[in-house]
From TrEMBL:
Binding site for (6S)-NADPHX: 55-59, 129-135, 158, 261, 332, 389, 458
Span of domain YjeF N-terminal: 10-215
Keyword ATP-binding: yes
Alphabetized UniProt keyword annotations: ATP-binding, Isomerase, Lyase, Metal-binding, Multifunctional enzyme, NAD, NADP, Nucleotide-binding, Potassium
Protein name stated in the entry: Bifunctional NAD(P)H-hydrate repair enzyme
Catalytic activity: (6S)-NADPHX + ADP = AMP + phosphate + NADPH + H(+); (6S)-NADHX + ADP = AMP + phosphate + NADH + H(+); (6R)-NADHX = (6S)-NADHX; (6R)-NADPHX = (6S)-NADPHX
YjeF C-terminal domain mapped to chain residues: 226-521
Length: 537
């Protein structure tokens, strides 16, 4: 797993590295060399480097120096003369570079900048990095717009200029990078809010050779889960399994209004590997589900006048639930008094539980003031996975704003920290999904935009349930198993987008691609471990 840091922790890391004997000036040299190396890969003849007032600009000045010494023609744009740059380290390297074979442009007009952009093969954006805050000021607001209008190949240093590295928020404008070369460790803002739209391909320059020895000394905002991290869940089934040893799932879902959600979740659980799946649905929609899923038994449950779970549903569902390795509750069940009772009843049972969709809305309604105040939550010991999207998550924490990855992690941590259990995981679903536990925040591979379609969440909940049933006995870290399920869902998105076209994917397409998605994930894990295509370990 690869750590992702907050900007405060990056500063702490720099201080630790300095204490270990590598100064910030040396780090800037290493950063600039790394940028130059990444730019050189693009084989440019003419590079334009835009620098700002701070150390982000310093990285750019070093890169200019290195590239020009390799015989590449370099133009450097600066807002002020090198002697007037306020940041000490940046001023030092700017003076040095200005004395070498680079062309300098101090405070160019928009037309002059456009002319420079026209002759450049690659543009390096070293205008603003982690020190950026507030609204963009001139001249950078003009530079950024001019660069984006010209749409050249752009390599951003550390962070695309204009992006708040703490939150991923873009207020006015931001460099649209083809590649972002981030230093020491990726910043959380690169994954949050507007970040993914502007970052392009992300490359990290660790710079410090003994990073392994110091990275544990700072807090990680999150960790990126790589294919090799989930390889344990991608193994073949042992030859001696039977349907019971593969685990069983009870899907508590559906209503006359939304029988489809129950169908998709149950079928996905079976496709994800559970040996036995059963649906408990309000009686009036049970037959529709039976017809759609001939291989899956459906138990009709007492219902209310609207065809949702009724007053007697709780005991019927809870009696059944005890017999399963895992229970998934929520898809399509609507918010009803009976549904609230079912969700609370399942919370009190000693069975691994996934609460999704309307089960979460039921819970939010039942616990005014936030779920962190609900006794059923912190009394529970069996594993509990909750899968809210941002709106559901906001309801669960009493209405706090949840609008991006950073605020979603905050809200999810409020829930898991209140319960304080290793067995509680909140999957904060969004463009970048975070898997949040008491001690860890994991970022599994994100899927394509095609996954943003109705019913996609029901498929994810099913994959999660099937995976939990199959692997429950072999789990040390629940966050990792959940990350596996999220990654498989992402792979179904890529496979479906390829087959049906990015805009045409519908949720039912994803279900039959769960198997192929596991193959894709398996191949990628083996490749990254050097075990595929005769690469040899
Ligand atoms: N330290 C290290 O060891 C290493 C650091 N490294 C590099 O340093 C970078 C961080 O450098 P940094 O802290 O100097 O901040 P940086 O992003 O250059 O910007 C500060 C300048 O921008 C200005 N400014 C702010 N907001 C603005 C706005 N809205 N509109 C306009 N201007 C605005 C701000 O002005 P002020 O707020 O002071 O008025 C100040 O003048 C980091 O991203 C990485 O690239 C690497 O080399 C590795 C080693
Ligand atoms: K930048």
């Amino acid at each position: 797993m690869k750590p992702v840091l907050s900007t405060d922790e990056v500063v702490r890391l720099e201080d630790i590295i300095e204490k270990e004997g590598t100064s910030k000036a040396e780090l800037m040299e290493l950063a600039g060399e790394f940028v130059a190396q990444e730019v050189e890969r693009l084989k440019p003849r003419h590079v334009l480097i835009l620098t700002g007032f701070g150390n982000n600009g310093g990285d750019g000045w070093v890169a200019a120096d290195v590239l020009s010494q390799k015989g590449i023609s370099v133009d450097v744009v600066t807002p002020v003369e090198p002697d007037e740059i306020p940041a000490v380290l940046a001023r030092h390297v700017a003076r040095r570079t200005a004395a070498r074979d680079v062309s300098l442009y101090v405070g160019p007009s928009r037309d002059e900048l456009s002319a420079l952009l026209e002759k450049a093969d690659v543009v390096v954006d070293a205008i603003l990095g982690t020190g950026f805050h507030g609204s963009l000021r001139s001249p950078f607001s003009i530079w950024i717009r001019t660069v984006n209008d010209a749409s050249p190949v752009v390599v951003s240093v550390d962070v695309p200029s204009g992006l708040d590295a703490r939150t991923g928020h873009v207020e006015d404008d931001c460099i649209r990078a083809d590649r972002t070369v981030t230093m020491l460790a990726p910043k959380i803002g690169l994954y949050s809010g507007d970040g993914p739209e502007y970052v392009g391909e992300l490359v990290c320059g660790e710079l410090y050779e003994k990073m392994d020895e110091v990275i544990g000394d700072v807090e990680h905002a999150a960790e990126i889960v790589e294919p090799a991290d989930i390889v344990d869940y991608l193994q073949h089934l042992p030859a001696n399994v039977d349907k019971y040893s593969r685990g069983s799932v009870l899907v508590v879902a559906g209503s006359t209004q939304y029988p489809g959600a129950a169908i998709m979740a149950a079928k996905s659980a079976a496709r994800a590997g559970a040996g036995y799946v059963c649906v408990a649905a309000p009686e009036p929609c049970a037959n529709i589900i039976r017809l759609a899923l001939p291989s899956i038994p459906v138990v009709g449950i007492p219902y209310d006048s609207r065809g949702s779970f009724g007053a007697a549903a709780r005991s019927a569902v809870c009696d059944l639930a005890k017999k399963y390795s895992c229970v998934l509750c929520g898809p399509g069940m609507t918010v009803s008094a009976g549904g609230m009772d079912v969700a609370l009843g399942l919370l009190e049972l000693d069975v691994p539980l996934i609460l999704d969709a309307d089960a979460l809305n039921c819970l939010a309604k039942a616990s005014i003031g936030g779920i962190d105040q609900t006794p059923e939550m912190y009394r529970r010991e069996a594993p509990l996975i909750m899968t809210p999207h941002y709106r559901e998550l906001s309801r669960l924490v009493g209405g706090d704003e949840v609008s991006d990855l950073v605020s979603a992690i905050d809200a999810a941590q409020k829930i898991v920290w209140a319960a304080g259990s290793d067995n509680l995981v909140v999957v904060a679903k969004g463009p970048t999904t975070a898997v949040v536990g008491v001690e860890k925040v994991l970022l599994p591979m994100s899927g394509p935009a095609s996954l943003a379609t109705a019913g996609s969440g029901d498929v994810l909940a099913g994959i999660l349930a099937g995976s939990m049933a199959l692997w429950a006995d072999q789990v040390d870290i629940w966050e990792l198993l959940v990350s596996y399920a999220v990654a498989i869902h992402s792979y179904t998105g890529f496979a479906a987008a390829e087959e049906y076209g990015e805009k045409s994917v519908i949720a039912t397409d994803l279900i039959d691609l769960i198997g192929p998605a596991m193959h894709l994930a398996g191949d990628e894990a083996l490749r990254s471990l050097g075990l595929l295509d005769g690469e040899g370990a």
